[in-house]
Every structure is written in structure tokens, then in C-alpha cells.
Amino acid sequence: MEWYLEYSITKNRPGLLGDITTLLGMLSINIRTINGVSDEKRAFLLECNDEDQMNRLAEVLHHMPTITVTALHPVSLFDRLAIRHGTFVEKDGIDAKVIRFTRDEIGLLIDFMAELLQSEENLLIGIRGMPRVGKTESMIAASVAANKRWILISSTLIRQTIRVDLLEEELRPNHVYMIDGVVSTMRAGEEHHQLMRQVMNLPAPIVVEHPDIFVQRTEYSLKDFSYVIELRNHPDETIDYHHVKEGISSYELS
User: Fold this and answer.
1) CA quadruple 132, 135, 140, 144: dihedral sign
2) How far is it between the farthest Cα atoms of the chain?
3) Which residues are 9's β-sheet partners?
4) Are strands 154-155 and 161-162 parallel, antiparallel or unpaired?
């Protein structure tokens, strides 16, 4: 069983990391990965099948004056990403399903989505963001990293794509289906809408760009989404859909 250990350093001194690793070795706890996750925090990916040993570890660490344990629990996807990239994935403080990234964190975003696509089959992901921030490109890169074929149902990646049918080999649960919520709901005809409904009922991963526009014009709601990803050029950027109601020319490139 894999565990995530994280602590902040309250008094840094030479040999501190050696003391921690020696303690882990004495308790027969294997270290898989070590990384810093902020200026004053270290994180470990540990391997141990004995929960009692982890409880003993927690008790000893609690009495160490040089560190403060901030997390010790079975590892999650977010823990793995924090250790791998040395930074935390930002969750919305109100809605935990909303995950935020900036353009300089696209590598982290791709890794996050690839892990989701590999671990979950029936998955509906929304992705918000202004034009040309890298939404579609990130989705495709994550599909490739997850070793899954990606199918564009609607898109403006190179030119406008509006599919009205799929080949038999394209209707498989191991594919990733990508829908542009603006194009599908504001530009497409009934044939495309029928295909979109068919795809939405597949037991397969589906990624919807502009989910807010999508739910306004379909029977779906944001509650149906497993995750909603927000991608910004910088942390303070506002994702504004107001001008989409007047026209979608600025969304010709996503």
C-alpha cells in the first residue's frame, strides 16, 4: 500500500532528511519518491502494508521538534502529482470538482488529465478557458499520454469540425471524445445533435470545452461533470463568456 507523507520544516539543520529516512528504514517503510512541494515542505511517497507501522511513524514524527507533519494518509492522485511536479494542484475552495491551472502549468495539467483517463472509464470532464490558451491541445496531449485515441466530435482546433456520424471503429469505450460546447450547441444542426447525444451516452471518457455554454443549451448540468478544469493565461485572468452571446468569432481558435 502506498502512503503520502508531507511535513513542513520548523527548524532546518544538517542531517534532518537523513534522520527521517533512517527512521523510515527502521520501521521497514520503503521510500518510493522524495520531493520538495514548496520552499519549506517535503513530500514522500512511501510503501508499507502494515498500518500499525504508519501509526508508529506518525507518533514519532509528532514528537520531533524540527518538523510539523501536514499530511500522512493513503496516496491520492493529487498527492502523486504534487510529488512528481513539486507543486500542488489548485482546487476551488467552494467546489472541489473545479481544478485550476495556468498556462505555465500545462505539463501538470496534461499529467493530471492523463492520470484521470487511465484510471477512470466513464468520465465527463469540462474545461473552461479563453481562446488560444491551449485547451484542445492539452486534451489531445493528455489522450496521447494515456495511450488513448482521441476523437473530435466538434472543434475549432485547425478549422471548424462538426461531425454528423462516426465509423464503427470510432465508437469504442477506450477512445476519448472531445466536444466544443460552443460549436456543438450554437452552430451545429440536428444530425450533429443526434450524434452528440449518442456519444454522451457512451461509457467512455468525454471532454467538453466551454461546459457552461454546453449546459445552458442541453439537458445536462454542471453536476453531471466529474471535474471542471479552468485554464488561464495567468492566475488573475477572468474567463468571460459574455461576448459569446453576441457572437463566437473570438472562439474560432481555441
Assistant:
1) positive
2) 68
3) 67
4) antiparallel
